[in-house]
Specification:
The chain is of the alpha+beta class. The protein has ten helices and 23 strands.
Amino acid sequence: MFVRLLLLVALLSFPGALRAEETRVEKAGFAPKLTIYLARGPANACGAGCDRWITIEGEIDRDSAGRVRRFLAGVKDTQRPIFLHSPGGNVEQSYAIARLLRTRKAVARIGRTIVPACNAGKQVDAACLKIKNAGGEVEAELVTRNAMCNSACGYLFMGATNREVAPDAVIAVHNSRLTLVIHGHPPPQVVADYRRRQLASADRDRAAFIATMGIKRELEDLIRTVKFESQHVLTRPELYRFGIDTRPLPETAWTLEKEARPFIRKIALEKRADGTSFRTMEWRLYCENKDRARLMFVRELDEGGAGKSTVVMMAGTDKAVAFGRLPARIGKYEVWSDAVKPDTVKAMLAVPRLQVGENVPAQDGKPATVTFDIDTLGLEPAWTQLAASCPAPAARPVAPSPAGALPSVSAAPAVTPSP
């Protein structure tokens, strides 16, 4: 048969891996080979009580699973979280790594590990990769903003039994591509038939894998509709509905944004009462001078109750932080803004969680109170850095951030990272 004349190697891979040179992967901010190393940061860098983690980043190449297996065999702490940042890569290798994570009952999150010892902006050059691959723990920082786990990386991520996707990180999916390397000159129909059988087999394997990982079949149905040349960023309702991240209130740490006027930002996504959608919320803390800070709370409008709810934030049961009145409306956002004194900031830093209470008018005319908590992870170190740049009290306070800056509250990181 003509099939015997074929020497076919079928590889399921990520966009551009077989179309572009490796240098393009590097320029996109990723190493062309999966890199695994231990990282250590300041207190609570990777969550409450966590300062050590495992980093898996870069392209998932054809030898990745073996290297990850050998690496994890030497890490006895199975609850050390794993942070992923990858454009994708070889699908079969991602399945194998996912199964390793499942046997380990791994905790996985999406985040970028930044190594200060590397040259600024160069986390994947030869010098930096030498530091990361030297063995031992690397001093590092963690950020979730613009972190991604795309294409085949998503399958790897599914292997963890505890999965978290921060509000400012992304997972993107698409259908796979089959590349055939052919020796000889077989008839086109033979090649087409073989390709069709291999793609059907790959679809069955993917569906079985997704089901085994406890993810809803809806994800497989979605992936089939996304062309290989494109990518679909999973929305928060999809992450929740498919069973990938089922937290009702995912949130970021408080992080210092080093802009022209620096501020501290926190983003959270609140599951609405309908159970199928989420509302984006953002807090910003500015330092106006040594004696006064400003706290802003911004969230997407709920058209049914826009401008009718009062919100108050508490640090403990007896310390009101801010707000307590009706919001201003700017575009599709509600905005609360209050000046806060140094002792109030200290009260915020002293507690592990802040309470947010909202009085919502009920249909019968009686207000209903809704409360939720947000954590203060990252707030203290971020405030220490921000306070160092505060002007003296005699300085004229700077006006709050202009309305034009507010839409960033709902901004999602791009599917392709900046270097």
